[in-house]
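User: Structure please.
Assistant: Input sequence and predicted structure:
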Amino acid sequence: MSERPVVHLVGCGSRPTGDLPAFAAELRDAGWVPYVVPTPVGGLFLDVGRAEAASGQGVHGAFDPDDPVGLPQADAVVVAPATYNTVVKLAAGIADTLALSVTADAIGGGAPVVVVPWTNSRLAGHPVFAPAVETLRAWGVRVVAADQAGPFPWAAVREALEEARGALVSRSPRP
């Protein structure tokens, strides 16, 4: 891990994705290097110019075969908000978008991953959803509870990420 760890901020197709620029700015001020990586539908909820200004980095929403190294490997990944579609695909091992790919890569590489499921009660009640969340937990993913009836839990996400940062520091090789 570098002195300033890289975090990928994955935002899915839901209103809280519009808050990612402010969250990226907070993380940048706290010593992270944030990269915003929206899903294809998440990009519809994101002000790209604001996200780039807040993060200090370009927004990466799609695979770019002309720039395969434009997005550095993450020390940690946050998927917030995580829609039903993303939670279920991630638990099934599907990586058909850049956002899912960077998250799957982090899980496979043992990097900390924080996921905040953000879905309505009917989708949360679908038979595949709860097992998908449990699969992510079994893989070591930190799942932060959220309720669409209330505000998005950015403070809990920040706390989970800082706990992950502590774990990164403790497992980094000493000079």
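The chain is about 40% helix and 15% strand.
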